[in-house]
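Sequence in, structure out. First:
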Amino acid sequence: MIKINRLAEVLEIKKITNRELAEKIKKTEETVSRWVNNHRQPPLTELYKIAKLLDTDIRELLYPTKP
């Protein structure tokens, strides 16, 4: 499976659990787990909320692509 987001890595750096993130953005822990494990991808609106909550640039949540 191709990883698209870096959500797991950023959450680890920020020391925030899936459950804490789920509570803060009003999503289920199962939904966040799917995003973290790259089984599903969060919509851009949710990525924006997550980036703002984690005080990080939205680009930090995504794997870079080759030019």
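Second:
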Amino acid sequence: MIPLITRTPRLTLLAASRALLTAELHKPHYFPVLLGAAMPADWPPGEYDEEAGRYFLAQLTAGGRTAAGWYGWYAILRATDEQPATLIGAGGFWGPPDAAGTAEIGYSISADWRGKGLATELVAGLIQQAESTGMVRRLIAHIRPDNAASEQVLLRNDFQLVDPDTEGRMRFERAVTPATDTL
């Protein structure tokens, strides 16, 4: 079974579920209650938009339990004495890995939380999640050529630029060492 929660030093990554996506898309006043986190003013952020949410919901509905963990993930900054737990971004996979073990990731951080290293941490958590499945051998990511901040996030997480112009986007790749079960 694929873990549906991943923790990094500051973030809890929570796999999107049909209930969370339905609330996000159709009952937004319930969404922060179900998530247990305050909402940023600019939700949804960046390239994580309503279309992405609808895609993730459709894939989770069609794929049932086997699709869980292979689509959207919510990035929640854990509570401190100064602030409540806060949803700061989203990321995830565009589906399970292909036959060669390749999966694609994407991510977006709310404007108020950019420049604090949280995107780098979110991507590190997605890498950790991919490793924990034992199914992923390589991760890819595509970004716009004008997104220097996102390029730095990927480079800090050991991705390499492999194609500077794939249909107007830059393609990055990173090898993944799958975790092995030891009993």
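Remark: Residues 118-133 form the longest helix (16 residues).
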